[in-house]
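STRUCTURE:
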């Protein structure tokens, strides 16, 4: 290995000392479990945190009922670590999280809750993620939003645009208001 370094240093003007010095001078950015040497990426993470902080502030003041933020990135690109980082930085308002499942009715029930008797097995009224987030003034994190059925995406759009949702089995006029931040992640571009 050292012979190769010498050959490289002679042919390209790089010495082992220069390589070590360059590695030491690169700044390591740590965001929870998310670690990078990439200055541009570190800047984007800092900007996202700043935007997220501002979104929390604006929704708490009532300036905007709902602010939606989207993080796009391929599977394995660190979206979950980024969310964990934001969650630990803002412990006064941790995310109410939701991941993907296949059944649209189950997703609707998990997100918006359900009324007693709205389907077989619904023995009691149940709050969904948005109801819990509303009660505790917490932001919502929706993972892999691009995988949700269109019916669910349509209902989510109503929450984002109007801050309203209805538990499954309840009349539309009994809709609930949600005010807060909705942070979504997608492993494919969302159009």
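SEQUENCE:
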């Amino acid at each position: 290995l050292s012979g190769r370094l010498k050959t490289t240093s002679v042919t390209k003007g790089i010495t082992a000392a220069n390589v070590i010095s360059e590695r030491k001078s690169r700044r390591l950015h740590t965001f929870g479990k998310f670690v990078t040497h990439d200055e541009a990426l570190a800047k984007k993470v800092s900007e996202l945190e700043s935007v997220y902080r501002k979104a929390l502030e604006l929704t708490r003041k009532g300036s905007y009922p709902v602010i939606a933020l989207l993080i796009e990135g391929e599977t394995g690109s660190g979206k979950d670590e980024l969310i964990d980082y934001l969650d630990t930085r803002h412990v006064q308002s941790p995310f109410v999280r939701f991941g993907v499942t296949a059944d649209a009715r189950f997703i609707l029930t998990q997100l918006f809750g359900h009324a007693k008797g709205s389907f077989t097995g619904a023995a009691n009224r149940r709050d969904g993620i948005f109801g819990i987030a509303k009660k505790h003034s917490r932001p919502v994190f929706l993972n892999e939003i691009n995988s949700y059925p269109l019916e669910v995406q349509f209902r989510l759009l109503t929450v984002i645009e109007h801050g309203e949702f209805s538990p499954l089995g309840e009349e539309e006029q009994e809709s609930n208001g949600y005010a807060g931040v909705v942070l979504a992640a997608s492993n494919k571009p969302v159009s």
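REMARK: The CA atoms of residues 118 and 129 lie 17 Å apart.
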